[in-house]
User: Fold this.
Amino acid sequence: MTVVRRSLIAAPFLCLLGATALPARSEEPKPAEPKESVGKPKESAAEAALPAAANKLTIELDGKKVACREQGVQPFLVRGNWFPKTNDPDKLKEAVKMLQRAIDYRTEKYGYFEPFGNAKLNAHPPKFYAKSVNFMGLSLQLNGKIIPAVKCVEAALKSTSAGSEYTPRTSSGMRFKNTYKGAEVSNHLYGIAIDIEPDRNKCCGCVAPWNEDPVCKKTTDVWKRMVMPKSWVDTFEKYGFYWLGHDVLQDTMHFEFLGDPDKIIEALP
Assistant:
């Protein structure tokens, strides 16, 4: 999907960025946080002495078995934090700085996409890091640095009933044209975003024709604007992905890796 489907932001922020059209302000981000179970028995001294990686989900990477590390998102990468609901000039300036920091970080980690960011941070474009991966029976092209995270999500889905609750028919990953306008850069350009079945998982906060889908008028419940089960969202969020259904866009098809690519896996003992 290459068409622009994002909405526009308010004038104060637009002026600060010097753009003519930018995406909408978002609600505060709601990344999933690990919750401890109530009444969980205290682990024994022997269990506590076991290496942490020994009890974790594992995947095979380059012929070697490694452990998946659960992690949340990095707040400065969440788009909702770039567009605060305020006219306070100081807060808007901080948001601009955060957006620039996010662009610089993604440039350094995933590649330089002209004209955004600084080429000195990375001599290569994102497509230099592009690799193919099979996810739940579908082929995706993504930035190679996040493929371990995708494999961890797939392994986690297949290890529980969530894997059989839903069978996506289409998906897309890396793109080579920005689907945002103005100063914001789509995470698809960096190869760190995945769209799953856009025709069945809606984006009711996006621009037309996306927001004209009949389901957008039938309900305001974001979970009813998609066919993908919540178990999939929960699983993605365990491994550093952010679901844009939390955003004001309610882009239910869209996941983006906002964790630390250097903390996706760890060696087994």
User: Anything to note?
Assistant: The first strand starts at residue 58 and ends at 61. The beta strands are 58-61, 64-68, 130-135, 138-143, 171-172, 193-196, 241-243, 254-257, 265-267. Residues 89-110 form the longest helix (22 residues).
